[in-house]
Amino acid sequence: MAAIHFSILVLEMFLWRTDRVRATFGTSEEFAEQTATMAANQGLYNGFLATGLVYGLISDDLTFQVFLLFCVIVAGIYGALTVTSRILFVQVIPAAAALPAVLLAG
């Protein structure tokens, strides 16, 4: 999960205007220019989620791990409803699958 969010950070904060990322997100050059600041903000948010997920693993804090996974799930559902349903497969399903594993291990 953390790797996915770190990857999104790089895409949205540093590579947003590149041809490959524009093709991935289905955006035009003009749209990418107009939304670069917004995309960087979203990338930063994904970086914070990734950092929280890594911290949860390192700290072995079950409450924190569950909280972060719920945050990822809620953010993913919102993104799927407002941006693209692909977010369900990239963000929601992996976090939802990780949740029972974390609870069983905890």
UniProtKB/TrEMBL annotation:
* Keyword Cell membrane tagged: no
* UniProt xrefs under InterPro entries: DUF1304 (IPR009732)
Keyword Membrane found: yes
Indicate the segments annotated as coiled coil, or none if absent: none
The transmembrane residues are: 62-81, 88-105
Q: Which domain of life is it from?
A: Bacteria
Q: Which Pfam families match?
A: DUF1304
Protein name in UniProt: Membrane protein
State the species of origin: Actinoplanes auranticolor
The organism's taxonomy opens as: Bacteria, Bacillati, Actinomycetota, Actinomycetes, Micromonosporales
